């Protein structure tokens, strides 16, 4: 098993500390997303586009952001038969996005690795959604198992298959790091600045805690995009990351 270095993990995108914050554009229209990006300005360099925006013109907006020199994380959580995933990933790789998520099922992960071959696209495997706790897993039909145990098992499978990184709650980041080693990415959603509303997230930490626990990149959506001054919130989070 690969062991982590004692030094802090580095972000995939080089030395710009702003790249460690991924801003989730969880809004219903491209116009609203474009306005948020404009208001944030150079305080934001990396944006996530998920279901809500992707299916409302978000794919073309992703190309627009890339053309502006921004990095894009397509959070699509692909999961289908192998051929469908492989060809879908191959098409997405041609867009020039930086990250793409797939669900951490072995067949799906193997297909995604095949589909991104020859490109710079990084595939991130989603282990257990941060809105799930142990009871939710039981409700979903899993045998009694702790979320952390399932995260560890899927992280091991992802490592062996050659996935570039793991999406997990920051509360599991240290354990995942011991499994996947220092050279793979850990991206953590469920990040909330101190005093922010948790919303529907159940396994959350602050930005500083997320970095100290071993995350390379932090995903923050509602606390930024719903703020009166999204640029100020983004800048404060980046500052907290830098200090951590």
TrEMBL record:
<feature type="binding site">
    <location>
        <position position="221"/>
    </location>
    <ligand>
        <name>substrate</name>
    </ligand>
</feature>
<comment type="function">
    <text>Catalyzes the decarboxylation of orotidine 5'-monophosphate (OMP) to uridine 5'-monophosphate (UMP).</text>
</comment>
<feature type="binding site">
    <location>
        <position position="192"/>
    </location>
    <ligand>
        <name>substrate</name>
    </ligand>
</feature>
<comment type="similarity">
    <text>Belongs to the OMP decarboxylase family. Type 1 subfamily.</text>
</comment>
<feature type="binding site">
    <location>
        <position position="26"/>
    </location>
    <ligand>
        <name>substrate</name>
    </ligand>
</feature>
<dbReference type="Pfam" id="PF00215">
    <property type="entry name" value="OMPdecase"/>
</dbReference>
<feature type="active site" description="For OMPdecase activity">
    <location>
        <position position="77"/>
    </location>
</feature>
<comment type="subunit">
    <text>Homodimer.</text>
</comment>
<dbReference type="InterPro" id="IPR018089">
    <property type="entry name" value="OMPdecase_AS"/>
</dbReference>
<dbReference type="InterPro" id="IPR013785">
    <property type="entry name" value="Aldolase_TIM"/>
</dbReference>
<dbReference type="InterPro" id="IPR011060">
    <property type="entry name" value="RibuloseP-bd_barrel"/>
</dbReference>
<dbReference type="GO" id="GO:0004590">
    <property type="term" value="F:orotidine-5'-phosphate decarboxylase activity"/>
</dbReference>
<feature type="active site" description="Proton donor">
    <location>
        <position position="77"/>
    </location>
</feature>
<dbReference type="InterPro" id="IPR001754">
    <property type="entry name" value="OMPdeCOase_dom"/>
</dbReference>
<feature type="binding site">
    <location>
        <position position="222"/>
    </location>
    <ligand>
        <name>substrate</name>
    </ligand>
</feature>
<dbReference type="InterPro" id="IPR014732">
    <property type="entry name" value="OMPdecase"/>
</dbReference>
<dbReference type="GO" id="GO:0006207">
    <property type="term" value="P:'de novo' pyrimidine nucleobase biosynthetic process"/>
</dbReference>
<feature type="active site" description="For OMPdecase activity">
    <location>
        <position position="75"/>
    </location>
</feature>
<keyword id="KW-0210">Decarboxylase</keyword>
<dbReference type="GO" id="GO:0044205">
    <property type="term" value="P:'de novo' UMP biosynthetic process"/>
</dbReference>
<feature type="active site" description="For OMPdecase activity">
    <location>
        <position position="80"/>
    </location>
</feature>
<feature type="binding site">
    <location>
        <position position="48"/>
    </location>
    <ligand>
        <name>substrate</name>
    </ligand>
</feature>
<feature type="binding site">
    <location>
        <position position="130"/>
    </location>
    <ligand>
        <name>substrate</name>
    </ligand>
</feature>
<keyword id="KW-0665">Pyrimidine biosynthesis</keyword>
<dbReference type="InterPro" id="IPR047596">
    <property type="entry name" value="OMPdecase_bac"/>
</dbReference>
<protein>
    <recommendedName>
        <fullName>Orotidine 5'-phosphate decarboxylase</fullName>
        <ecNumber>4.1.1.23</ecNumber>
    </recommendedName>
</protein>
<dbReference type="GO" id="GO:0005829">
    <property type="term" value="C:cytosol"/>
</dbReference>
<feature type="domain" description="Orotidine 5'-phosphate decarboxylase">
    <location>
        <begin position="20"/>
        <end position="237"/>
    </location>
</feature>
<feature type="binding site">
    <location>
        <begin position="75"/>
        <end position="84"/>
    </location>
    <ligand>
        <name>substrate</name>
    </ligand>
</feature>
<comment type="pathway">
    <text>Pyrimidine metabolism; UMP biosynthesis via de novo pathway; UMP from orotate: step 2/2.</text>
</comment>
<feature type="binding site">
    <location>
        <position position="201"/>
    </location>
    <ligand>
        <name>substrate</name>
    </ligand>
</feature>
<keyword id="KW-0456">Lyase</keyword>
